[in-house]
Amino acid sequence: MVFQDSYAVPFAAALLVVALLYHLVLYPLCISPLAKVPNAHWSSPLSSLWILVTRYRGQELHTVRQAHERLGPIVRLGPQDISISCFEDGIRTVYHGGFDKPPWFSFFNYYGSENAFCSLTKESHSTHRRRIAAVYTKSALSKSPQLAAVTETILLAGLVPRMENDILTSQQTDLLELSYSMCLDLVNAYLFGQSNGSRFLTKGQDVKSFLEHYEHRYCAESFWPQELPRFTRVLERVGLRLLPKRASTSKKWLETWMMAMCKAADATMRRAEKSTLGNAADFPTVYASVRGATDQDSSHLDAHSKQSEVASELFDHMASSREVLGLVLAYTLYYLSQKPTAQRRLREEIAFAAPEMYRPSSSNSSNLPSAATLDKLPYLSAIICESLRMRPNSTPLPRITPANASVRLAGIEGIPPGVRVNAFQWFVHRDPKKWDRVDEWIPERWLDGDGKLLKGSGESQLWGFCSGPRMCAGSNLSQYRQLLDFDPLTGRK
Asked: Is the four-CA dihedral 430, 435, 439, 444 of positive or negative sign?
């Protein structure tokens, strides 16, 4: 008995060591279904440390792209973390399958409320999408008198005078700042009504201050709550904050700024119920839709909670004008500035289809062609497609494999539940198997020999707004805005 007792503890310790070796080394290296996936780094099956350090340093896109070039369309980044670069049998399966989102997205909530972008489950996302879908269809946008009025006023009474003043006073124009200002004003005017939206373009508000707060909110240290949310919360409980104070200060500033527009839109809606608004552009089209839908599907919430839900949703819409619209437009103007032949061809196309654009800019009447007219211009469409291809979102847009079944991705069977799957739009858009000279801006690649827009292979070539049931609901608005934004910038002499 003494002999047995003397060996009990060492034996138990040995069993524990064996169990740990099996769980931490043998299983992930040799037995796990992910063992069939090529490793981006030797330590990938054993630890997430390598990919976490890579993400913290802001080197994920470049590093993972190199791994795909070496190893193929699927690579393992961590024990439960993979990346895919192929559309068929990869991205299509994940995004058309409506895989849930990981907690990584929770960082994008505001006022303590979810929005469509940060909703984690299919059910939650469906609720948010129903609130906004009607006002973002292509038909609704093209027929909206409010959007047409907003576009005309901001472009012709805001953008053109701003540019003409810069020319007359010999001031340098910061095209990135100008692009952000224009897109923010246009989107916010559609969300909240023109009189309630931002006024960055006319310098009624300071866009530099907004952009500074926006950058502070999404600072490099946001890595911690996104990638390691539990660890971050534990440290916060003991008084250690990994996010700098400016991040929370700027988030509060942005929330206050956004809520002010929501309250102004609410007041406009109450006025519209009593009498006709003097200006159609002042009606808060999107706010009214989201507010009405939230009242219906969340009747159990109090007024404050409903307002927070609406404000969080619209913050996500506003952010698209900074993250997508403004940035892509600025890059497009840069690319055009490098190619005089592309400028001439675009001007000739617009002049032929919409000669009213060349009427003197001092005219008080509208000389903007319709979005339907511009949508038929092949070279303008090719320019937009090429700019979206060259400058997509640079985040991995992660998803989680379903909890109730294994899946096949990029030729690998049996990918287990709970695996994080990352897919960069960059990989689709810069795939050398699909494109020649992938790192060059060449709008002509989207045209056939007769100068007509190629039908192409759809999402497998241009995946600028994701796809499937969780595709960006604002994709039609983004395209509408880009079509019209080019007219004052390139269609005038």
From this structure: negative
Separation between Cα atoms, residue 401 and residue 407, nearest integer Å: 7
For 435-462, write each residue's pLDDT tens digit. 899 999 999 999 988 888 887 656 567 7
Q: Is 448 left (phi over 0), alpha (psi -120 to 50) or beta?
A: beta
Q: Rounded to whole angstroms, what are the CA distances from 32 to 38, 71, 73, 409? A: 13, 19, 19, 15
Place of tokens 């030797």: 42
Helix, strand, coil percentages (3-state) for the chain, rounded to 5, are 65, 5, 30
The answer to whether the beta carbons of residues 353 and 373 sit under 8 Å apart is yes
- Alpha carbon distance 444, 460 (integer Å): 18
Q: 58-97 burial, b if ≥16 CB within 10 A, otherwise e?
A: eebbebbbebbeebebbbbbbbbbbbbbbbeebbbbbbee
Whose tokens are 């699909």? That residue is: 434
Closest CA to 486 of 185, 181, 179: 179
* 282 token code pair: 């002042």
Quick one: tokens of 149? 């009025």
- For the beta carbon of residue 359, count every other beta carbon within 10 angstroms: 12
To which residue do tokens 């050398």 refer? Answer: 432
Separation CA 100–CA 24 (nearest Å): 26
CA dist 114 and 102 (Å) reads 14
Apex 31 CA angle, 29 and 36, nearest 5: 70
- Phi first, then psi: give them for residue 420, nearest 5 degrees: -75, 125
Pull the structure tokens for residue 479.
């395209």
CA atoms of 180 and 371, how far apart (whole Å): 21
Q: Are 99 and 471 in contact (CB under 8 A)?
A: no
Q: What is the pLDDT of residues 110-168, one digit of tens each?
A: 999 999 989 999 889 889 888 888 888 888 888 888 888 888 888 888 888 888 888 88
412: which strand partners?
409
User: What gap in Å lies between CA 417 and CA 227, rounded to an integer?
Assistant: 19
Strands 399-400 and 420-422 turn out to be: antiparallel
Beta strands 81-84 and 420-422: pairing type? parallel
What's the pTM value of the predicted model, to 2 decimals? 0.87
Task: For residue 41, give both structure tokens.
Answer: 């780094």
State whether residue 400 is helix, strand or coil.
strand
Smallest CA-to-CA distance from 420 within 433, 407, 436 is with 407
Q: How many residues does the chain have?
A: 493
